Amino acid sequence: MVVMADASSFFLISSPQHGFCSITSSDLGCTKYASSCGMHAKAHVATRTGVMDWRMPHSSIPTTFRKPLMMLNCKKKGLELVSDLGLGSFVKDGFVFRQNFYIRSFEIGPDRKVLVENLMNYLQETSINHFKAIGLFHDGMGSTPEMNKRSLIWAMTKLHIAVDHYPTWGDVIQIDTWTVTSGTYSMRCNWMFRDSKTDKILARASSIIMMMNKKTRRISKIPDEVQAELKQIYVDTQFIFEDDTRKWSKLDENTIDHVCNGIMSVPMTIMEKYELASMTLEYRRECRKEDVLQCHTYVLGKTNDGIVDCDHVHCQHLIQLEVGSGGGGGDGDEILKGRTKWRPKYEKC
Amino acid sequence: MVVMADASSFFLISSPQHGFCSITSSDLGCTKYASSCGMHAKAHVATRTGVMDWRMPHSSIPTTFRKPLMMLNCKKKGLELVSDLGLGSFVKDGFVFRQNFYIRSFEIGPDRKVLVENLMNYLQETSINHFKAIGLFHDGMGSTPEMNKRSLIWAMTKLHIAVDHYPTWGDVIQIDTWTVTSGTYSMRCNWMFRDSKTDKILARASSIIMMMNKKTRRISKIPDEVQAELKQIYVDTQFIFEDDTRKWSKLDENTIDHVCNGIMSVPMTIMEKYELASMTLEYRRECRKEDVLQCHTYVLGKTNDGIVDCDHVHCQHLIQLEVGSGGGGGDGDEILKGRTKWRPKYEKC
Question: Are residues A173 and A301 in the same domain?
Answer without folding.
Answer: no
